[in-house]
Amino acid sequence: MPKVTIDGHTIEVAEGTTILEAARMIGGEVAPPAMCFYSKLKTSGGYCRTCIVKVTKGSEKDPRPMPKPVASCRTPVMDGMEVQNKTAPDLVDARAGVVEFLLINHPLDCPICDQAGECHLQDLSYEHGLSKSRYDFKRREFDKIDIGPNIKLHMTRCILCYRCVKVAEQVCDSRVHGVLNRGDVSEISTHIEQALDSDFSGNVIDVCPVGALTDRTFRFKSRVWFTKPVDAHRDCKKCCGRSVLYMNGQEVLRVSVRKDTWGEVENTPEGNPGWLCNECRFEKKSASDWSIEGVRNIDRHSVISQNKYLEVKNLKIDVSNQKLIGEKAHN
Ligand code: SF4
Ligand code: FES
After folding, report:
1. Closest Cα to atom 1, ligand 2: which residue?
2. 93: which residues sit within 8 A by CB, 6+ positions away?
3. Domain 105-215 sits in CATH 3.40.50.1970
4. Which residues neighbour 130 within 8 Å (Cβ) at sequence distance 6 or greater?
5. What is the pLDDT of residues 230-277, one digit of tens each?
6. Whose CA is nearest to atom 3 of ligand 1?
7. CATH (residue range 3-87)
8. Measured in angstroms, how far is the CA atom of residue 45 from the centroid of ligand 2?
9. What is the per-residue pLDDT for 188?
10. How far apart, in whole angstroms, are the C-alpha atoms of residue 8 and residue 203?
């Protein structure tokens, strides 16, 4: 089993484990950010470079450092490898450069973006971004389009991470969208603006790390941090039926998959990714459609839990009639 040291923490991992996966096993700040890698989607990663790390020692056999930062999501661990993430100031600078590139075209329209509060690029720009852009040229701009009745594509915000394309390939029964063109004219699009109509197409919303794909049934209904996320489940023949309901009082504003600490879909107890079907996501918008389990603990990335979770902890779920009681302190 190869041994790798990342930011001073040593861990033994299985052959073939990537640096990013090893860093996630250590956890916390040691794990680099990842905008395109998604462990539940095969062949993801390698597009965005936010996960770069500095390899100061290649391996026990060949201790030479790697000459430039490497994408940790695509680089397997070698025995004796030494890696720096947060502890190398020049690497942190290099990552700030990556963020600056991503922000060349991405508008900082967080105040009106539905993804605000749970956007990985928003977090990165707080951590690394410059207060103004050095870019003088015209930015890419696209009209917003509806790809089907439930999904809005705002291509101007897309960072071309390919996650949604891989969901269409690997989770849906067919793929009718993809990346058209190349270089600075690349764009996510459906061919002749078709709708995404697979039963599982709504999952593209959950994997999108920015606000390029949003839920039309939730758009502009509420800032996400004003909602109360609760875990819920229902008997569904098509999917696992395990979700998070974002509630306002008794109203279900949004239904999403349950996400883990890395912002990826959680596995079900059977060990499969807990993707949701469109019926559960878009049509079951009443609390009585669901069995509510309790308040969701949201602990990373997010302002969602700020200021109110202490109060929300006092909430009780009246399971017999699916009501949240004692919610006066919320918001
Ligand atoms: S639309 Fe979202 S998920 Fe799809 S490539 Fe763009 S940023 Fe990635
Ligand atoms: S997360 Fe590794 S390149 Fe995007």
Report:
1. 34
2. none
3. no
4. 96, 100
5. 999 999 999 999 999 999 999 999 999 999 989 999 999 999 999 999
6. 208
7. 3.10.20.740
8. 5
9. 85
10. 37
